[in-house]
Every structure is written in structure tokens, then in C-alpha cells.
Design a protein that fits this description.
With 456 residues, the protein is an all-alpha fold. It has 3 domains: 202 residues, MFS general substrate transporter like domains (Growth Hormone, Chain: A, Up-down Bundle); 45 residues, no CATH class; 198 residues, Growth Hormone, Chain: A (Up-down Bundle). Helix content is 81%, strand content 0%. It contains 17 helices and no strands. It is a multi-pass membrane protein. It is found in: Cell membrane. GO terms for molecular function: transmembrane transporter activity.
């Protein structure tokens, strides 16, 4: 027995290091760019609105291609897609460093987005292969913790790099992380289990998938920013036509790119719904609060960063704990409790006094982070483990897509509410709507208790 245990440790832990390093790299790259936008706009002599495309291009490409790469992972192996993704990401990072114009940097960021989509599409599928079912929650908890740490550290790392050197170094940090992940992954990551199910990659569905999600993002963004109604209407019509064709095509496929077959599993569908609504609530709060702290409470950028930090720090502490609890407690109950704590935190933020002391903000932010951490890990475990083993890629891709859709919807709603409400009431309106989404996520999560836990 001892020999088996010792032989299992390198596969369980050291193989997971490759996944965690790649996730850290892709999350950091998404967060540090926000801090660098003013510097990039100045250096390339472009407007702030134009500079935002350095961030948007990266995010849009990920959203448009995530499910397609997940499907390729089911066909050709999660390990192969993952390693290709790291290679593309590192290569694109070198191209970013060498960029001498705004447009070459933007194109390099688009290529980076393809690499990040490969990584994100199969990372949880690989974690499912690395960890045995009885402790999968622990692996997912560590994964959630690394995401939270990277998100929390991103602004500080970006600020330190920009204070000491040029923006080029922001991309240089990807190279050692990527090369380490590539070396460890190539040596230790497991291959897909042998499956009797064989299918070909549906190129037409991949194109329809990209157009559907691309049009969805553009339509929501155009509506939120009050762009031309005619232009939005044309986009909406194209979205309905292409989206309808895409979904109808997926319903005829045995292993579709958009996993409608998995959505027929009740606990999977409910967990995807809670993921979208919870991330919508999170973004409504996280995007609106910095504006409130700066424009109403008159804190500076450094103070705002410190006041927001308790949220991810609390998530870092609770995510691994939730990963252990899900081994014994139904994920629907854990998710419901987590969203109740999260909703309570949002409500206390809504009730902030006019001139709060710093500690009065800090404990409210920590409460939100605790609730979200308690919810996220069990929910992710449920999504991945409720799918058949040969469809882990589809489940992993859907998990990432649900997160991105929730974040996109949350950001869009912030832009819309900021347009509708006056300065002093904008954050309150966002927090109130976030509270509604958090309660909805908690209710749907609790409904899952009527179904058997896939972690047992």
C-alpha cells in the first residue's frame, strides 16, 4: 500500500503544478493589463477608448474559442491542447515584448487569447484526471485559490513593474512561468482515458460558436454604451439567426461543441446557471465599487487597492476549505450557504454609512469573499464531476464559458446602470442588482439538493 501511495504523489501534486502555473500566468496577464492601460495609451499616443482594445481583444478571443478548444481536447487529448496553449501563449508574450506599435501589440494579444483559451478550456478536465474522485474537491479548491491569489496580486505586480521599468516587462514574467509549466506538463501530465466514443471536430459549429458569442458580447456592449440603435438592431438580428442555427445544429450532434447533451443533466444545468448568476453579481460589485470609493469616498488608487484586497484574500482562505467540505456535504447546500453569506456581504456594502472608516469597508469586503469562496469550489466540482469522463473537456469549457458570460453580463450591467443613475447612486444600484443575482444563485444552488451529489 505504501508503494502505491508514494507512486501516486508525483502524479497528483507535481502534475497539478503545471496546470496551476499556466492558470496563474493567464489570470495575471488578464489583470495586470488593466493597470497598464494609461501607460500604454500614453506610449502609443492613442485614446483610452482605443487602448482598451488591448484588454478587450484578449477577452473576446477567449470567449469565442473556449468551447471549440474544449471539444478539441475531448478528441485529441487535454494534455496536447494544454501544452499547445502554453506554447502559443509564451510565443505571443515574446511578440508582445517586441511590439513597436499599438496594432502589433493588439495582434499579439489576440494570439495570446488563443493560447489562454486552450489553457482555460481544459484546465479543470486535467485536474479531474490528476485527482481521484474522492478528493477532487481539494484539487478544485487549490485551483480556485491560485486564481484568487493571481487576481489579487495582479495590480500590485503591475504597479511594481511599471514603477521600476517599462511595460514590456509585464509580458516578460509570462516566459519563466510558461516554460516551467511546459516542462512539467510535458513530463507529468496524464493522457485522456481510452474512450469508445469517437467523433470528428465540427468546423462549421466552431465558426457558428465564435460568431454567436462574438455577436452576443458586441450587442450587449453596444446596448450598454448607447451606440447606434440601427447598428445594435442589425447585430441583434444576426445574433438571433446565427445563434438559432448554431443551437439547432448542436441538438443534432452526439458530442456537440456547445454541450447541450450535458445540459440535459439537471444538476449540471443548475450548476451552470448558478455560475453565470454568481459571476454576474461579483462583477456588478467589483467593477462599480472602485468608482464609488474614488468619486464618492475620495480614496486614492493605492487606498482603493488595499480596500478591495480583503475580498480575494478571504476567497483564498475559504476555497480550499470548501474543497474539503464538499467531500462530506452536498454541494447544493454549500453553494446555498456560500451565496447567502455573499448576499449578506453585498447588503452590508449597500448599507455603508456616508463616511465609513476603513475597517468598516474591510470586513464587508471579506464577508463577500468568504461567501464566494465557499460557493465557487463546490460549484466547479459539481460541473466537472457530473459530466461523463469522456466529456470532461466539454464540461471544463462550459465552466469557463459560464464564468466569462457572467463577467461580461455583470460589466455590461454596470455600464448600463452608470448611464441611468447619478454619481452618488450608481454603486448602490449595482450592489442592489448584485444582491438580486446572488440570492437567485443561492436559491438555484439549494434546488440542486434534490439531486444526488456527483462527488459521492
Amino acid at each position: 500500500m505504501k508503494k502505491e501511495k508514494i507512486a501516486f504523489i508525483p502524479k497528483q501534486y507535481f502534475a497539478a503544478v503545471a496546470v496551476l502555473l499556466a492558470i496563474m500566468m493567464s489570470v495575471l496577464d488578464g489583470t495586470i493589463m488593466n493597470i497598464a492601460l494609461p501607460t500604454l495609451a500614453h506610449d502609443f499616443d492613442v485614446t483610452p477608448a482605443t487602448a482598451i482594445w488591448i484588454v478587450n481583444a484578449y477577452q473576446i478571443v477567449i470567449t469565442m474559442t473556449l468551447l471549440s478548444f474544449a471539444s478539441l481536447g475531448d478528441i485529441y487529448g487535454y494534455r496536447r491542447i494544454f501544452l499547445i496553449g502554453i506554447s502559443v501563449f509564451v510565443g505571443a508574450s515574446v511578440a508582445c515584448i517586441l511590439s513597436n506599435s499599438f496594432w502589433t501589440l493588439t495582434v499579439s494579444r489576440i494570439i495570446q487569447g488563443f493560447g489562454a483559451a486552450c489553457i482555460m478550456s481544459v484546465n479543470t478536465a486535467l485536474i479531474r484526471l490528476i485527482y481521484p474522485p474522492q478528493i477532487l474537491g481539494r484539487g478544485m479548491g487549490v485551483n480556485a485559490m491560485v486564481v484568487a491569489v493571481s487576481a489579487a496580486a495582479g495590480p500590485s505586480i503591475a504597479g511594481s513593474i511599471l514603477a521600476l521599468g517599462s511595460w514590456h516587462w509585464l509580458f516578460a514574467i509570462n516566459i519563466p512561468l510558461g516554460l516551467a509549466a511546459l516542462a512539467i506538463g510535458h513530463r507529468l501530465l496524464p493522457h485522456n482515458p481510452v474512450s469508445a466514443v469517437r467523433h470528428k471536430f465540427d468546423k462549421i459549429s466552431a465558426i457558428a460558436n465564435a460568431l454567436t458569442f462574438g455577436l452576443l458580447i458586441y450587442t450587449l456592449d453596444g446596448f450598454a454604451h448607447a451606440e447606434s440603435r440601427k447598428f445594435i438592431a442589425v447585430q441583434a438580428i444576426l445574433l438571433v439567426i446565427i445563434g438559432t442555427y448554431f443551437i439547432r445544429r448542436q441538438l443534432k450532434e452526439t458530442t456537440p461543441i456547445l454541450p447541450v447533451d450535458l445540459l440535459k443533466i439537471p444538476i449540471f444545468a443548475l450548476s451552470i446557471g448558478t455560475s453565470i448568476t454568481s459571476f454576474t453579481a461579483q462583477m456588478l460589485a467589483m467593477v462599480s465599487l472602485p468608482f464609488f470609493m474614488q468619486n464618492v469616498l475620495e480614496y486614492n488608487a493605492v487606498q482603493i487597492g488595499l480596500l478591495l484586497t480583503p475580498w480575494p484574500l478571504a476567497t483564498i482562505l475559504t476555497a480550499p476549505l470548501a474543497g474539503r467540505l464538499v467531500e462530506k456535504v452536498h454541494p447544493g447546500l454549500l453553494g446555498g450557504i456560500g451565496m447567502a453569506v455573499f448576499a449578506t456581504g453585498l447588503f452590508t456594502l449597500y448599507l455603508l454609512p456616508a463616511h465609513p472608516a476603513e475597517w468598516n469597508i474591510i470586513w464587508r469586503m471579506a464577508l463577500c469573499g468568504m461567501g464566494f469562496g465557499l460557493f465557487q469550489t463546490p460549484n466547479n466540482v459539481t460541473i466537472v464531476s457530473s459530466a461523463p469522463a469522456h466529456r470532461s473537456g466539454g464540461a471544463s469549457g462550459m465552466l469557463g464559458t459560464a464564468r466569462l458570460l457572467g463577467q461580461t453580463l455583470g460589466t455590461t450591467l454596470v455600464a448600463l446602470l452608470f448611464r441611468l443613475f447619478a454619481e452618488g447612486h450608481r454603486a448602490q444600484a449595482c450592489l442592489l442588482l448584485a444582491l438580486f443575482f446572488a440570492i437567485a444563485a443561492g436559491v438555484v444552488s439549494s434546488i440542486r439538493m434534490a439531486h444526488a451529489s456527483p462527488t459521492k
